[in-house]
Request: fold
Amino acid sequence: MGSSKTSRRGLKICCAATAIFLVILAIVVTTLALTVFKPKNPKITLYPQGLENIGFGLGGFTNGTMNATIGMVVAINNPNYGRFKFKNTTSFVNYRGDVVAEVPIEQSLVPAHGKVNISTSADFMVDRLISNPSFWSDVLAGSVNFTTDATVHGKVTLLNILKLHASVPSTCDISVFIKSQSVKSTCKTKIKL
Reply:
């Protein structure tokens, strides 16, 4: 009779210790998920490298098409604890509501707390750009402003265990200053899991 009381008492102690351990574990996991492992927005910066190519299509400058290719480096800085592998995508460059260029971005892997530089080129449709009525007044004013839109789709891998689908929409404002021949870009990103 005495041994059944001790075994029940031992069982109660074991269940209580297990319950306390599980509660503490749940608190630790929740705290880490909401603080340390909380997804942070990646930082994207565009660096134009210079004119690579200029081309004229049927009819030359006046009644044909004119394209220009500008080399660019897209720098992606990942402040997260998970790596991000994304698929090929295309960014569109807009000038006052009109798409004037396309920028292909090849698939890549951005390591956790890492940075990746992706070389690409922006293929500008110059005829669309100069046919915009505001273009020449912006050039004479000294700056031409563009916006880029891209959504990058891929997978986030956290601690080589957890894999989540994610998308990162990005919008960049690019100002080209004519007189100083400089470019300033600011980008906004927001990770969506």
